[in-house]
Structures
1.
Amino acid sequence: MSGLCLAAAALSVALPLQSFTLAWTHSIEKIRWEEDYRIVDQRLQLVEARVRGHGAGMEPPEGAVLKDGVWHYRPALPPLPRVQLARSSYVADYEMCWDGRCRPMKDIAGPVEKAPVLELFPCDLP
């Protein structure tokens, strides 16, 4: 069975997920950004992104649709082998959402200081 692994220097976490949402708040504009991923053929496919506003480099791309104050769009990216997250104690941390609930990244991967760079990738579960 495959799932999602998170790894940092001394960290390894395996989650039994086939899809998830990665969410964060822009450090300057304080606007929430969300990306929906699905594991397809041992790669991470970004299937949709949403941003609740725009500004400071967060302009919605061409083709984005505004629904209830949120811009929705489908990024034209090929499936990715890994997604790397740079975390900092100076800004709000990432959240991961699945099964209708969002969890702070610190609850999944520990504090920023122990995992400042985190990689997400598909993996085989034990």
Note: The helical segments are 105-109.
2.
Amino acid sequence: MFIDRDDAAIRLADRLKAFKGKNPLILAIPRGAVPMAKIIAAKLDGEFDVVLVRKLRAPYQPELAIGSIDEAGWTYLAPFAASSGADEDYIESEKRAQMETIRKRRAQYTPIRPPIDPGGRIVIVVDDGLATGATMISALHGLRTRNPARLVCAVPVAPPDTLAKVASMADEVVCLEAPEYFQAVGQFYQHFRQIEDDEVIAALKPS
């Protein structure tokens, strides 16, 4: 469906072109969306930054998100979290671990400046795709509390039920493809390489 993240970003930017010239703030959910958001920001003449959220991992299944947490500590828990074996003690421990990762990433990614203020801005939150939507939900919730003028979720691909969940959190959702058969985001890319921290740090350095 997409050659790689660059291809997806170019196609997303075309769908978002109505925001060009309006100084949008393009926020990437690290790490996969960072190169995408940088491309979109350049094409829309906007600013680029990261929004830090982390998924809460299921016990014994670290790839499965049972929820997510944002930089302020707000937590989203999926309805199936308890049935995954995550009791209250486990969830509290996982929240602490992910908050520590968020703090370390903020220190790594933007050590000489605070996050760009989204207040009063058109804010476009980008990810390379949604599966459960947990991290996007936390990102949108946290940003909403900071009073953006407009809050947009922009992704190349997501299942229809996930799009329905995130729709209530944003003023607008832009999604290029919403296939019924969905196992993982990577299945919709010919090339879906790992993005490393040093690439994120380089992308966020002032030019």
Note: The first strand starts at residue 25 and ends at 28.
3.
Amino acid sequence: MKVALHTRVRADRITEYEAAHREVPAELTAAIRSAGVSSWTIWRSGTELFHLLECEDYARLLAELEHLPVNIAWQARMAQLLDVVHDYSAEGAAAGLPKVWEL
């Protein structure tokens, strides 16, 4: 399945946000892949962040990562950089952007 998400980086933290994503912990990327993600891309327009991920089951992905220590640490780090954060709770499974059009 494809899931599109929207988050927002703080204007004064863009450089730090991008630097953090050049150093995503290998343990976290392995856990994301293990939870069924085949790709995850983030685009930035100003402070707006748009994510597109392909995964087997987004709700399962969130459930597997929500209590994982490496993800908890990563989310705490991201919370310092973002105005709108990625929701890893069960309610977050419905937070994807609605598809409007596809070619």
Note: Strands lie at 2-9, 37-45, 48-55, 82-84.
4.
Amino acid sequence: MFTAALSLLIATSALAGEMNEPAPDFTLKSNQGKNLRLEDYRGQVVMLNFWASWCGPCRQEMPLIDDIYSKYKDLGFTVLAVNVDEDSTDANRFLEAVPVSYPVLYDNDSKVSERYNVEAMPTTVMIDRDGNARFLHHGYLPGYEDDYVTQIKQLVRE
């Protein structure tokens, strides 16, 4: 679980923040039909992106994240998109309109999003190769993708 310091950072950060805390491990079913575990991505930089089908900013952000994924995946970077809809059918309908090439995970009971104290859609957590949550973003506004790229470049070089 997140430490008190990380919980405080999440509670007090406006839109984005830096941290260095262990990212809580989890396993969720993916749109590829298999269970994926965060721990299995240790050694890679992971963008953990919490989203919902009803989220307008998610619709804007997801194709941009897909472009970033395509550009940096060969450098040890991956995206895990965690959908928080209660019904995966809603997420799948969204993905028909906004397809992505990275894995989508289903957190139908919101247990994982609760462990990450997700309070806004989308919420993005950048995780370093050692499994530490390093950057946190609440919401999405045009230009955030530039911050993501800067952070990814920093983390893949570490």
Note: Strands lie at 16-22, 27-29, 35-37, 45-51, 77-83, 104-106, 123-127, 132-138.
